[in-house]
Amino acid sequence: MYAVDLSPLMCRLVREKAGRAYLPVRVFGADMRHFRLPESVDLVTCEYDALNHVPRRADLRLVAKAVLRALRPGGHFFFDVNNSLGFERYWSGTSWIEKPGVVVVMRTGHNRQADRAWSDINWFIRDGSCWRRRHERVEEVCWDPGEIRRVFQETGFDQLRAWDAAPFFKDNPLIGPGCRTVYLARKSRG
Ligand SMILES: C[S@@+](CC[C@H](N)C(=O)[O-])C[C@H]1O[C@@H](n2cnc3c(N)ncnc32)[C@H](O)[C@@H]1O
Q: Could you count the other beta carbons within 10 Å of the beta carbon of residue 129?
């Protein structure tokens, strides 16, 4: 089992988590647009809208090609993406999440013409009697279902199935019907 992420911190957390669970995962710091695995695999997964994080529209094709290279013939790619309805509904305005010792304030925006969304996230983490503030900016590209279908067909996937993600995220009020889609693409055997 292999794991790929661009962020060195995320890679470290995955190594620690896999180690605690005694899971044999090899973690690579790599870009999903260009990654290569030491051997081909039956399944590649890319969850929690990670595919929306690539910076340019042309990157969807690069990711599809990199995944195709990593898969055995007939292998599957499972991924989910936020849709424009999700960006319109949840990425417009300011929201606040509070848990013991952590407060998150998110200012979000969506540019419908450019099909892009962003989130300025301010974290307040309790440190003794002080609160430490951290800032993070996340930008996402919004994919059109037709564009996803075309890119995967042209790249060498012979089947693409899609489901609305809402039933899989029943406890998450930020993923309503039509806001996120789960896909399963199959690499052609030919
Ligand atoms: C919303 S998180 C999802 C994380 C993980 N898939 C999970 O299920 O918890 C998005 C992740 O995508 C990673 N990421 C963003 N752009 C990337 C890229 N071009 N190549 C590889 N990883 C990337 C980020 O570092 C981040 O860890």
A: 5
